[in-house]
Amino acid sequence: MLKPLLFVSAVVLFGITAWSASGTLAQEESPKNPVKPTEKSQARAKEIYAVDCAVCHGETGDGKTDLAKDMQLTLGDWTDPKTLAAKSDGDLFTVIRNGKDKMPPEGVGRAKNDEVWNLVIYIRSLSKGQPAAAPSATN
Fold first, then answer.
1. For residue range 120-131, what is the model confidence (pLDDT) as tens digits?
2. Inter-axis angle of helices 89-98 and 113-125, nearest 10
3. Are 115 and 45 in contact (CB under 8 A)?
4. Alpha-carbon span 64 to 2, nearest angstrom
5. Helix, strand, coil % over all residues of the chain, rounded to 5
6. Which long-range contacts (CB under 8 A, 24 or more apart) does 96-101 make?
7. Which domains does the chain have, with CATH numbers?
8. Alpha helices (H) along the chain
């Protein structure tokens, strides 16, 4: 009974976020992360992740959820530092803000830019040990 409820919730969430996707960054931009994490900002990022990301990416970030399986999604395992090592924070921000493939965008109405930047930091913290160092981007 929980699986259909999660699926319906995800579909509604995807529809709402796709509808409110105005104000997204261009795909070509890859800005640097301008925020410094605080205990409060990371607590907020964890809340956003739990509501908007965990249903597909998993509570721990391993990408192994029933919904991802049902939607035939192969998601990266963020608990492995190598998964995000080749991605800059700007790349992650752009994917979160604009969406990608079946992933809906995180619209400005759902999360402010600084909250998305903190979400990037939170996602990197899901890797075992410490976050992998992001490659330097030409910004």
1. 999 999 996 644
2. 120
3. yes
4. 16
5. 50, 0, 50
6. 96/120, 97/24, 97/25, 98/21, 98/24, 98/25, 98/27, 99/17, 99/18, 99/21
7. 2-22+36-125 (1.10.760.10)
8. 2-19, 39-52, 54-57, 66-70, 81-84, 89-98, 113-125
29, pLDDT greater than 60: no
Mean pLDDT of the chain: 81
Residue 73: count of CB within 10 angstroms of its CB: 15
pLDDT, position 24: 46
Q: Which two tokens stand for residue 17?
A: 């976020």
Q: What is the pLDDT of residue 131?
A: 45
* 32 token code pair: 């640097």
How far, in Å, CA of 93 to CA of 72, rounded?
A: 24
Structure tokens at 81: 């530092």
Contact yes or no for 42/121 (Cβ under 8 A): yes
